[in-house]
Design goal:
With 212 residues, the protein is mostly helical. The chain has nine helices and no strands. It is rod-shaped and about 100 Å long.
């Protein structure tokens, strides 16, 4: 159901003070439950207006006692009765009085507001939460060409040289550990690494010249 604006927007002076804080006689309790059921079953705006006039000042006084300032309390009051209108179909008169049900909604709205103030939600428009921009076509092409150049340069190495580079850079092993693993002198490991780097620089350096 859509909340009726001419009810949710009642001015504060329409609440009255006399009813705030008084205990409910049994017949009044039954009447308010019937009004709430009428809202649930028929979307009865007149019944909702009665509920708003009757409980509005009580709910507002409750929210003020809970520590809210007047402006914040008025917002919570509007949220509370908007929720009453939307969720009236969930009300069960066998489990709670109308007053208990409405005040439970007000309490939950107050708690939610307190949590929002203590832990505000992040701004989804904050640049820190935005995905990185997609690279343009030229940048994508350049990245692909660089990757192909690296693969081509590695393919030009001997198997022994690629093995030394793999163990050194991908596995993070020292030259001494590589020598033990491959069963060759440390000097041979260093020599293969130097030759590998020299050939990589030659191939990649020539490729950069072509791209200029």
């Amino acid at each position: 159901m859509k909340a009726p604006g001419n009810v949710i927007g009642f001015p504060r002076r329409s609440f009255g003070r006399a009813s705030a804080g008084r205990s409910e006689p049994a017949d009044a309790t039954d009447e308010m439950s019937d009004r709430l059921l009428a809202v649930a079953e028929h979307g009865d705006r007149a019944a909702f207006a009665v509920l708003f006039r009757h409980f509005g000042p009580r709910v507002r006084a409750y929210l003020l006692r809970a520590g809210g300032d007047a402006g914040r309390v008025d917002d919570l009051l509007q949220e509370t009765f908007a929720a009453v209108w939307r969720k009236a179909g969930q009300y069960d008169s066998r489990r709670a009085t109308a007053a208990a049900w409405i005040f439970a909604i007000a309490r939950n709205r107050s708690i939610d507001a307190f949590r929002r103030e203590r832990r505000p939600e992040f701004d989804r428009q904050d640049p820190a939460f935005q995905p990185d921009p997609q690279p343009d076509g030229e940048e994508t092409l350049a990245t692909r060409e660089r990757a192909e150049s690296v693969r081509a340069a590695l393919a030009a190495l001997s198997e022994e040289q690629r093995e030394v580079l793999r163990l050194s850079f991908y596995d993070g092993e020292s030259y001494a550990a590589i020598a033990i693993r491959l069963g060759i002198p440390v000097g041979t490991v260093k020599s293969r690494a130097r030759l590998a780097f020299r050939r990589l620089r030659a191939v990649l350096g020539g490729r950069r010249e072509e791209l200029r």
